[in-house]
Amino acid sequence: MTDIVAELLALLDLERLETDLFRGTSPINSWPRVFGGQVVAQALVAATRTVPADRPPHSLHAYFLLGGDPKVPIVYEVERIRDGGSFTTRRVKAVQHGRAIFASTISYQVVESGFLHQAAMPAAPDPETLPDMKAVLARGLPGIPAAVARYFARERPIVLKPVDLRRYLEPGPQEPVCNVWLRAASALPDDPAIHQAVLAYASDMTLLDASLIAHGRSVFDPEIQSASLDHALWLHRPFRADDWLLYAQDSPAAGGARGFARGQIFDRQGNLVASVAQEGLIRPKTR
User: What distance in Å separates the CA atoms of residue 246 and residue 241, rounded to the nearest whole number?
Assistant: First the structure.
């Protein structure tokens, strides 16, 4: 296991303060606020630790209320809403400096069989045929914005391989569709809860940016103020987050300084393992 993945797993291994009270930390880096995917994943971990292992999570709905402070711990308060015959519901509130920064509701269900259908995975080249972004950037990629290059060159626990880089290389509005292969940077333990938390973390990495493609902009644009406002995640079937997953994203609407984006996550075999939806702030900065 690489050091960077070990650091992610350490972030997800919350300290238990009381029966339904947990504490998490943030990595020490230059980011001015806590990464939203980290808070989603930590909240999922906190809730899951209060639910029997035979009831995996199937949906998460969350709101980002305030930007998180990476310099201080985050306290996660879990409320046991319901323990039913088939479903279990938990509410999680994340608190810093005495104020709620995040709130979510997470539902769990006993494993059942039933009707089965899914959308087809979009056509995409195999991840092994796509270039390693670090290697490409090391050789130099003319035309790519410096902020985009820094983002993809950064060492992180999730490996990203965009299927198409034209949106960064060809200025102007394009169809708001973005497909990215992703996986953990090294092997993970077999515990399904870890894979669910890692996918929750990764699901917030690229989604909001899809809402700016139609306008020829990106979240890396210094003239754009962007932030996730809410986040929804549905887990359809088991998967491994350390094997390649295709994150197919699009944005059907934007307005009122908000962009709406949705994503479908497929495994290598074409199984739809998760769906994501998010609305975020995409506000042009004014002088």
Answer: 11
